[in-house]
Amino acid sequence: MSTKEAVVKLVQRALEREPRVNLHRNPIRIDFAAGAVVLEGEVPDLAAKKLALEHAAAIEGVRGVVDRLRVLPAERRGDGAMRDSLAGFLLREPELQNCAMRVRTKGRLEVLREAADAASGYIEMAIDDGLITLEGRVISLSHKRVAGVLAWWTPGCRDVINSLDVQPDEEDNDAEVIDALGLVLEMDPMVQADQVRASCHDYVVTLDGYLRTEEERHQVELDAWCVFGVDRVVNRIEVRR
User: Partners of 71 in the beta sheet?
Assistant: First the structure.
């Protein structure tokens, strides 16, 4: 058996053992070249995507992972409709009210809002076949994370590349993740943020508390997975009707 075949088999076994990944329902193509595993296919949610990438990266001899996984959206939408939804989210979000907003469509740049001043930063969005790309400059890691979550919340979104630069530089840590998650849960009208307690250690978020429905419990977990930098989510929230 060649090295490539051995690595591909090890990755496949790791994915088969992961309960959030269902290779029978959502097949993932696995390749290995120049020390990197390539994963390509559609997965049911962001949790499955992140966990699949984590398992592939943990295989001995793998020096990198090429991510070509896309999330199956709850509804299929055209890029134009997605741009309108995302632009509305970003323009209405109070945390981002001082940022300039721009949208790039087929090489053409449209300014949606000018910044209050140059130091407030800007966000430039582009959408291609359900893939949302965010570029520009923001003033904090929380701003970067909030913008990324709004992108993931956009109906029809299949993936997000969050390339927003943070200036001035901030040191990222678990406390920054929790601060951003708190903002996100307050933003989400589908959850009772005051009923949720969250902690983070080495970018693993643990959720505790009591909520009314299983749907709300699941939504809080999805919100945590959407936060940039979160590697894993442990959901210990209980449902109490």
Answer: 43
Q: Is 151 exposed, middle or buried (0-12, 13-18, 19+ CB in 10 A)?
A: buried
Task: Provide long-range contacts, Cβ within 8 A and 24+ apart, for 128-131.
Answer: 128/79, 129/79, 129/158, 130/70, 130/73, 130/77, 130/79, 130/82, 130/156, 130/157, 130/158, 130/159, 131/70, 131/158, 131/159, 131/160, 131/161
Residue 138's alpha-carbon distances to 91, 142, 147, 228, in angstroms, are 14, 9, 10, 14
HEC string for 196-224: EEEEEECCEEEEEEEECCHHHHHHHHHHH
Domains of the chain: 3-71 (3.30.1340.30), 79-166 (no CATH), 174-239 (3.30.1340.30)
Element (H, E) at 105: strand 100-105
| pLDDT at residue 74, rounded to an integer | 87
Look at residue 142 and tell me whether its pLDDT is greater than 90: yes
The residue ranking higher by pLDDT, 176 or 107, is 176
Cβ neighbours of residue 24 under 8 Å, at least 6 residues apart?
none
- The CA distance from 171 to 127, in Å, is 29
Quick check: 241 pLDDT over 80? no
